[in-house]
Amino acid sequence: MIALFLSPLYLIGNVYICCRTLQWLSACSDTTSRSGFRLFFIITYTFLALSIGLAFILPHSGFQRILACIGTYWLGILLYIIIILGAVELIRLILHITHTVPFQTLTDRKIFIATGLICIAAIAFFCIWGIISAVHVRSTNYEITIDKNGGKLDELNIALVADLHLGYTVGPRMIQQMVDKINAQNPDIILIAGDIFDNDYDAIGNPEELIRILSQLRSKYGTYAVYGNHDTDEKILAGFTFPSKEKKTSDPRMDDFLQQAGIRLINEETLLIDDSFYLVGRADEERPGRGVDIRKNPQEIMDNLDISKPVIVVEHEPKFLQALADAGIDLHLCGHTHDGQTFPANFLCKLVWENPAGYLKKDNMQSIVTSGVGLFGPNMRVGTKSEVVHIQVHFKYSSRQIPCR
């Protein structure tokens, strides 16, 4: 639905940017004002603007893959063209309306050229920053305490990742970084909080290589995953899906991929790990997937559990935190938000989510949301980071200790 709404705005915006850029180029020199150069620029710009749509409608091929990769970079570049050009145009309009600056000055050729150069420098700065930030996976550490009996465990070392978005933009290089950072921490358990794939399984360039890399993950209790809203078999346009009455489920190849990589999918499933803590995997609310019509509510999750043991819930979206806290869940682990991924969405994200990223204490429940490893839409991160989260969980006491009374 969002893709349908944004399509006409995308078209209008690109036409305006193309015309405004041609106007600036014509002011710069006689060469750039010639019809041959203008035609070349229009063709090049049109190709970039249409790369996203062409990649969507063309069948899978090497050329289609190139278009898709170009489109992800173009989305980020276009975002900052719109933001910076929009800000400059707004300032110019305010100065004109308030008569702060004479109209002759605002329309002066040299000032027009200088303003354009400043815009180009600012756009280049944000885009280069975003592209570099996107390809480097970092580590984030948390240390928390759960006031319950940890059974056989005094502490639990959790590695949490989410939003891998395996596909056109995320491949073996980034996933190898992720695996290396996880294994370096020697975790007890590895949890993947959804959006492992980027909807289209065929977008993965080399699934066998990714399976080989993910098979290198090492932990005491294994690797567990839930699916997110992008772990479904449907094509996406600029990161957005189209409305459909048909229930969306994962491509069977996604399930096989996880199995071959040694990753256990826990969809609406509760496991008692080492007779010490519960691990609950929830289906995604938006796309619950195959075999799930209605997912359990927080209270149903806790039914028939020994509430003296720690309860860790992993799901994709960080929703309904109060209901989860009221039900008695101890630790809630999610992804989905990307922490906004790019400026200024990282600030707007805080208006949408109670915990957009990081740590939040909700009554007796602790919530940790990761900004994710991969990318949604633009192949950039500005003001956010691709991360692997390490959580050192301390328990109040274990079965090897005598609790204080």
TrEMBL record:
InterPro entries for this protein: Calcineurin-like_PHP (IPR004843), Metallo-depent_PP-like (IPR029052), Metallophosphoesterase_sf (IPR051158)
Any GO MF annotation of the entry: hydrolase activity
SUPFAM superfamilies given in the database record: Metallo-dependent phosphatases
Domain of life: Bacteria
Keyword set, alphabetical order: Membrane, Transmembrane, Transmembrane helix
Record flagged with keyword Membrane: yes
Residue ranges of domain Calcineurin-like phosphoesterase in the record: 157-339
Annotated transmembrane regions: 6-25, 37-58, 70-91, 111-132
Protein name, UniProt field: Calcineurin-like phosphoesterase domain-containing protein
Species name: Frisingicoccus caecimuris
Lineage per the UniProt record: Bacteria, Bacillati, Bacillota, Clostridia, Lachnospirales
